[in-house]
Here is the input.
Amino acid sequence: MNEQKFVQFLKENFKFSKGKGIGDDCSVYKLNDYYQLITNDILIENIHFNKNHFSMNELAIKSLGVNISDIIAMGGEPEYFYLGLGFPKKFKEKDLKDFYNGLKQGCNKWGIELAGGDFSGSDKIFISITMVGRTERPIYRENAKNGDLIGITRGTGESALGLKCLKNKIDSKYFINKHKKVIPEIKRGRILSKYVNSMIDVSDGLLLDLKRILNSSKKGAKIFYEKIPVSKKLRSFCLKYNFNEYELVLSGGEDYILLFTISPKKELNLKKENIPYYIIGQVNNNQDELIVKHNNKTIKLKDYGYDHFLHL
Amino acid sequence: MNEQKFVQFLKENFKFSKGKGIGDDCSVYKLNDYYQLITNDILIENIHFNKNHFSMNELAIKSLGVNISDIIAMGGEPEYFYLGLGFPKKFKEKDLKDFYNGLKQGCNKWGIELAGGDFSGSDKIFISITMVGRTERPIYRENAKNGDLIGITRGTGESALGLKCLKNKIDSKYFINKHKKVIPEIKRGRILSKYVNSMIDVSDGLLLDLKRILNSSKKGAKIFYEKIPVSKKLRSFCLKYNFNEYELVLSGGEDYILLFTISPKKELNLKKENIPYYIIGQVNNNQDELIVKHNNKTIKLKDYGYDHFLHL
Here is the structure.
C-alpha cells in the first residue's frame, strides 16, 4: 500500500460531516466568522530525526515549525497547540526543561500558545503536535486548475543536503542549519492565500508534494528544472561530494517552502505584492502525468520522495 | 520532579490567553454559543499497554475511549478527533486495517468522526489522539468547595485487576474485559455536569485523581472506604490470589469512572435523576490532607497511584 491508496481507504471509511477532513494539510471546520484549521504531525526518533543531530531545544522549535507550516499551507495563521510527548526515562529533568524552553522560544517567535497535552515516559522520543489555526479563506490541494502556473517560494534541496552533511560528518553550518531550522513563511503564506488556487508545504520532496496537489485535483503538470532556483553553493557541494543534485532538489524533504498553483491572470496581481517566488511549471489536464524537463531534455524520475507507507 | 511540579512549571511558562489551558482534562475555548473542549492523550507500547494483551482492533477502541473520557470529565460530548499513529514497519497491511476498523467501530458506537492526523513507521506502536468536543457548561477540577460531597459513578480497581490477570496469566474474562474495554459514560457525564462543582475521570487511580481535584481547588478530603462499591468478585479474587485490595481500589488505574464533587444541596436534585452514583467522602478546607478511613480506622497510604514524572 502507498500513501495515495491509504488516504483513499481512509476517505472511504471516515467521513467528516462537519467540514473538510482527511486528505489535506489541515482539517477545515467553519465557525461563525472564520474557518478553524487543525493539523496533527508526529515526529519519531530515528524515523524523523536522529537525536545526536539536534539539541532538545532545536528539536522543540523544529516540531513547532513543521506544524505551523501545515497551517500556512492552508492559507491560515497558527494560534495554539497541544503537545503529546513521549520522553525517554533515561533523560534528565534538564533535558525536559530544554525541550520546553525551545517550545517557549517558538511560541514567542511565532505568536502561538501551548493549550494542553499529555506526557509519558517512553523508550524513544515521540512528539505529537496538534496545531490550531484560523483563516477566512482556506486553500485546498484539490483546487489546481488546467493552465495554472506552478510556483515555489524558495529553492528546495538545502535541508536534505544539510541532513547529508550531518550523516556524512561534512562540516557545513550553512546547510546543517537549513535542515535543523524550519522557517515557516507565515506572512508570505497569508499574502499568497489571496491569489492562489491550491497550496501545500513541501515536507516530503518537491515532486511528491506536487503529486499530492495533482492527485487531489486530478491534473498533471510539466516542470522546468532550470526555473527552480538552485544556489551555487548547493551545486558546488554536489560536485565536490558527488551528491545527486536532481535527487536533492526534486525529492529532498523538509524544506517547508510553499508550493502553489495560480491562474496566469492572478499571477499578474501577485507580482505587485513584491514577495519573492519562482514560477517553475504549469498544470495541465493530463491526469497522473508529471514531466520534468531540463533544458528541453526529460529527466527520468525513479521515485517522487519519501513515502511512509511503502513498507506496508 | 513529580507531576504537580511539572504542571506548575508549565503553567508558569505557558499562558493560554484565549481560554483555559494546561491543568485540566481538556483545554476550554469559548466560541460564540458554546465552549470547545480539546484533549490530547498518548498511548505508548510497553508503557500504556502490552501489544500481546490487545488485538489491533481493541487497541484502537480503547485509545478512543480514554480520550472521550477526558471530554466527558469536563461536562462535554465528544465530536471528532485527530490520530497521530506510529506503526511498526514489521506489521502487515492487515494489522493497520484492523486498527482502523476498530476506530470505525468506536466512531459508530460513540457518534464521533475522524477529521485528520498523521502516520509514520516506527519501532514501537505510538498512538496520539486529539479529541474535540463541546459543552455549554465546562466543569473544572479547581472548583471543589468546602463541604462538597465526593461521588463516583462506579467502583474502582477492576481494570487494574484485569491487568494483573493478564500479567499473571489468570483466566478471567470478566476482569480482563474491564481492563481492555473503556466504557465512556457520555450520557451520565452530561447529566452530572448540570449539578457538580468539579469532575475528573479516574485514569491513574482514585486517590491520585482525587488529589488532582484537591490540589487544583486547594482543598483536602476525607474518604470512607466502606462507601466505595467493591464487588464480591473483586474481593474474592484478592483473597484467592493474595492481591492487595486497597491498592487495587484506591490506586488501580484505567477504570475511567467519573469522580466528582457536589454541594449537599445539589446532590438532593441529582438523586432525582435516577443515575447510579456513590458518595464516598467529603471535601474540607485542610489543604493537602487526604485521609482514608475504613470502619473508623485510618488507612496508611504509601502513594497515590501512577505518576509518569517520578523518574525525572
The two ends of chain B are 5 Å apart (CA to CA). Chain B touches chain A through 64 residues (CB under 8 Å).
